[in-house]
Amino acid sequence: MGWSISKMSEVTNIISGGTPKSGISDYWFGDVKWITPKDMGKITGIYVSETGRNITQLGLDKSSAKLIPENSVILSTRAPIGYLAINTVPMATNQGCRGLVPKNTLDTKFLYYFLLKSVSLLNDLGSGTTFKELSKTALERVEIPHPEITEQKHIVAILEQAFADIEQARAKTEQNLKNARELFESYLQQVFSERGEGWRASKLKEITSKIGSGST
């Protein structure tokens, strides 16, 4: 079968965030994970399970924040637009993020990779003067092409194998550079410590015309 093109609102439930009042201690330091764009900027992989701050159930109930179920995609929608992560535990967000909960026609990782590819588009859809923000309405209208769920999973597997191969190649390249650097330094040390026949030692001032100092 061919690919379908759906609006984001047709294949995901989009959940907006909120912030409990900071002056009420009963709203903070609870068991509910609460993520912000600042937290997301520190994520190095695909998944997130910890957040910089937690809120209480009361804080969740008394704010516009909503709990996003695990295995959803969390997207920062301002300051900046485009940080992404898949949450491995339920969590809420502040106003700078939105959660996209895939419906049964969409694979979570397929959605993640589509959004990753679409960060430039998402930024173009943002609006605002002080800083850009991607509104819920604009996000709902984003069109996502998608095949059947089994084909989505197959595509994800291919992408992840490609990323694994790239990471392996990068690691090998770094190791080769490290080995080459160590070999060069070893040879350099050998050249100047094991002097050849006819070498003589001189003070630097004896073989340079001028030694100067820098200034600021």
Automatic annotation (TrEMBL):
InterPro entries: Restrct_endonuc_typeI_TRD, Restrct_endonuc_typeI_TRD_sf, Type-I_RS_S_subunit. Keywords: Coiled coil, DNA-binding, Restriction system. GO terms for molecular function: DNA binding. Residues 2-170 form the Type I restriction modification DNA specificity domain. It holds the Pfam family Methylase_S. GO terms for biological process: DNA restriction-modification system. Residues 156-190 form a coiled coil. Belongs to the type-I restriction system S methylase family. This is Type I restriction modification DNA specificity domain-containing protein.
